[in-house]
Task: inverse folding
């Protein structure tokens, strides 16, 4: 399934980050958990239903300005697709 | 390398009670159920959740019995959330109305797993020994109005395998993001009722085909998890992710077990959370050390390349089928005791050849129903 650049990804019900005081930062999901650091944490923290996929890409391209912008975009789309397959994201219009 | 040192446990399975409005013929509870009067208090459980989180546990699975029969269920959810845990509730949905569901959500419940015994009232009633299906359908409607992860749990077997498309349709019409199709595993009450539950190989293969095609169709909408009956497997399952490696189960009275069925293993004693901290129990109790690592293994496991993947399979199954808890899991095609499993499967194949399986007309088995504890 392809990711719509204009959609607004948001963590699905029952998918949430652990508390900011808990280390390592972890995405908690039904029967699963993913440890997040660096770019994966930056991506998930922006899946708030307010930012579009396009905006998330732009923000991370700025944050990782030394990286090749198309590579940043590909990595983000790949990671969002993985979370979609885990059923951790809802994509709102 | 032989190692018996402990990793961090990931999940705590909290069997809050053995009381249950259902009497399912495949219940994973032990045949000897824990009495209500010996159940842990709210304060005991709250301390256990704190200790679990400190040990690195991420998730608490509230199960039973029926966890909603605990009058303090809201306090228990709040206590687990306060400890920093993710809270799963595995429930029949029976002692529930819409306002109590609202209260569960408010208390911080993360994930609601609703068990189904079939897609039809008559099957559900035969399996659970009670009328529960209509209530479950009501709960599914209420769940649509709450921001909770929802999983439908279908336990499947010979008597309801023909209902898979109906079960999935039910899930698709609900707010579920996950569906678990778990073929019965043969322990506890399921072991006692095994001969009436085991599917044929052909039925099993058809079900796996259905799961794979459905997952393809529903990716991004519903995640489908399925568990096959390991009697038909070539290699054993990595039971509990390895003995004492990832999971810890606390029984209603506070005994700490490496798995649901561990009480069947003779001469194995279990520490209680009222006497010892979870850390002590996890790291050094006899029960958790007994089959941790590889030093207990016999041939063929001892030198097998797969021992780091399946950890020798299930110790309880080894005892139930081979009368030796340290034997290679007899479902393994390399196990010396595999012929015992093949003999059981041959009986199933023979019975189905004599009476071609038409589930709805097959005469009703003489079930052994799980009772309620005193």
Result:
């Amino acid at each position: 399934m392809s990711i719509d650049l204009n959609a607004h990804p948001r963590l699905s019900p029952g998918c949430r980050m652990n508390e900011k005081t808990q280390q390592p930062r972890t995405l908690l999901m039904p029967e699963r958990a993913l440890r997040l650091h660096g770019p994966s944490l930056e991506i998930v923290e922006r899946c708030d239903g307010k930012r579009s996929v396009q905006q998330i890409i732009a923000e991370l391209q700025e944050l990782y300005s030394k990286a090749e912008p198309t590579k940043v975009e590909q990595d983000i789309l790949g990671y969002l697709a993985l979370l979609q397959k885990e059923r951790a994201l809802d994509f709102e219009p | 390398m032989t190692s018996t040192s402990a990793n961090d446990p990931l999940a705590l399975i909290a069997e809050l009670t053995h009381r249950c409005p259902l009497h399912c013929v495949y219940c994973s509870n032990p045949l000897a159920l824990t009495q209500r009067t010996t159940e842990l208090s709210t304060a005991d459980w709250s301390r256990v959740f704190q200790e679990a989180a400190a040990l690195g546990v991420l998730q608490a699975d509230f199960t039973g019995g029926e966890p909603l029969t605990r009058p303090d269920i809201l306090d228990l959810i709040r206590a687990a959330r306060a400890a920093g845990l993710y809270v799963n509730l595995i429930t029949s949905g029976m002692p529930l109305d819409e306002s109590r569901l609202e209260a569960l959500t408010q208390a911080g419940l993360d994930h609601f797993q609703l068990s189904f015994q079939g897609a039809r009232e008559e099957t559900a009633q035969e399996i659970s020994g009670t009328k529960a299906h209509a209530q479950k359908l009501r709960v599914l409607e209420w769940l649509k109005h709450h921001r909770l992860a929802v999983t439908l749990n279908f336990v499947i077997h010979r008597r309801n395998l023909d209902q898979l498309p109906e079960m999935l349709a039910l899930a698709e019409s609900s707010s579920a993001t996950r569906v678990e199709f778990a073929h019965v595993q043969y322990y506890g009450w399921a072991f006692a009722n095994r001969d009436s539950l085991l599917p044929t190989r052909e039925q099993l293969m058809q079900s796996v085909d259905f799961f794979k095609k459905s997952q393809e169709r529903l990716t991004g909408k519903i995640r489908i998890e399925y568990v096959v009956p390991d009697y038909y497997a070539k290699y054993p399952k990595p039971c509990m992710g390895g003995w004492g490696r990832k999971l810890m189960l606390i029984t209603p009275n506070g005994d700490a077990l490496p798995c649901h069925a561990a009480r069947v293993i003779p001469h194995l004693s279990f520490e209680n959370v009222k006497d010892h901290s979870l850390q002590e129990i996890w790291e050094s109790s006899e029960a958790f050390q007994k089959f941790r690592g590889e030093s207990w293994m016999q041939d063929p496991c001892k030198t097998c390349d797969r021992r780091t993947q399946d950890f020798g399979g299930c110790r309880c199954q080894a005892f139930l089928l081979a009368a030796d808890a340290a034997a290679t899991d007899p479902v393994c095609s390399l196990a010396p005791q595999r012929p015992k499993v093949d003999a059981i499967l041959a009986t199933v194949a023979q019975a189905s050849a004599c009476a071609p399986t038409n589930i709805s007309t097959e005469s009703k088995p003489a079930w052994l129903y799980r009772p309620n504890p005193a």
User: Anything to note?
Assistant: The longest helix of chain A spans residues 69-85. Helices of chain A lie at 39-46, 53-63, 69-85.
